[in-house]
Amino acid sequence: MQFLLVGLALFALHARVRPDPDRAMRVDPDRVDSTRAGLAERLGRAPDDRELAAALRDALDDERMVREAVRLGLDRDDPIVRRRLIQKLRLAYESTADVDAPDDAALLALRDAEPARYSAPARLALTQVLAARGRHPDPEAAARELVRRLEGGADPAELGDPGPHARRFGLRPAGDYAGMFGPDFAAALSDMPEGTWSIVQSQLGAHAVRIDARAAAELLPLAAARPRLMADLAERRRAEAVQAALDDLRRSDPADLDALPADLAAALVEQGL
User: Fold this and answer.
1) Can you state the percent helix, strand and coil of the chain, rounding each to 5?
2) Is the distance from CB of 153 to CB of 123 less than 8 angstroms?
3) Among 25, 102, 179, 228, whose Cα sits 20 to 30 Å from the Cα of 221?
4) Please, which contacts does 51-57 make with residues 24 or more away whose CB atoms are closer than 8 Å?
5) Distance from chain centroid for Cα 260
6) Confidence class of residue 19 from pLDDT cuts 50, 70 and 90?
7) If pLDDT is split at 50, 70 and 90, which confidence band does 21 have?
8) Which H or E element spans position 249?
9) For 97, phi and psi rounded to 5 degrees?
10) What is the pLDDT of residues 77-111, one digit of tens each?
11) Rg (CA), the chain
12) What 3-state class would DSSP assign to 48?
């Protein structure tokens, strides 16, 4: 209540102050055109002069109240307002970054600097034969029998229990197998030797599995990587623009660290503050 009374008193006081030319808000054609366009979109038609004048009055009053609230320091102890101001300033800094149509050389430099990020994942082809849970009292023992017969030359298509997935798979990323058989199944494939039968567990049961082929991760060609490279480069340039602006602010508004313990002050200096 006390804060409210003080605030009302301050507003009443300022209402009696004579106009200050330095605080005048210019109503120029750009502001009029912008207000008219926004009002027309809301109304679904062109506004008349009275409607346009009322909208301009409301916009100017809003700006007056924002100016006065900042002048009175009402933004200083409100974390929501502070976060919003920081967010808007950060967006303003980001807008200064040059993100338009980077050339191929810049994109290739980014790709080659982080090959793991811009590579197609390693892939593997396999054959699996299932000993399903619910069909065998001991699925792993059944899978061992499958391995014995497969190593003897039996046709995988003629063995095992029916399941929701194919027996043979062409080259696929390990993530595809994780989606079908579970993460433990996919993890077991990483160290499995090629061309030999092994037993791997999944939620479906026990599998006799043979890795038929492997393909190493490959750096993506520029055409395939371009959309991601452009997005990443734009994001990097925006971050660099923000950091450059923050560096300028740190130089213009240095921190006074004299009251801090030496170790903490040194750590802050090391952080660039």
Assistant:
1) 55, 15, 30
2) no
3) 179
4) 56/27, 56/31, 56/32
5) 36
6) low
7) low
8) helix 222-252
9) -70, 145
10) 888 888 898 899 999 999 999 888 889 999 999 99
11) 34
12) coil
- For 124, the 3-state DSSP assignment is strand
| Joined tokens for residue 21 | 């030319």
Quote the CA–CA distance of 135 and 123 in Å, as a whole number. 31
**C-alpha span between 271 and 93 (Å, rounded):** 21
Task: Give all strands (DSSP E) within the chain, no chain letters.
Answer: 119-120, 123-132, 168-173, 197-202, 205-215, 218-219
The structure tokens listed for 188 are 């077991």
Q: Which residue has the tokens 């994780």?
A: 178
Q: Is 32 a residue whose pLDDT tops 80? A: yes
Place of tokens 């994001």: 235
Tokens standing for 140?
Answer: 């792993």
Nearest 5°: CA angle at 154, between 157 and 191? 80
Note whether 175 and 240 are within 8 A (CB). Answer: no
Phi, psi of 169 (to 5 degrees): -130, 135
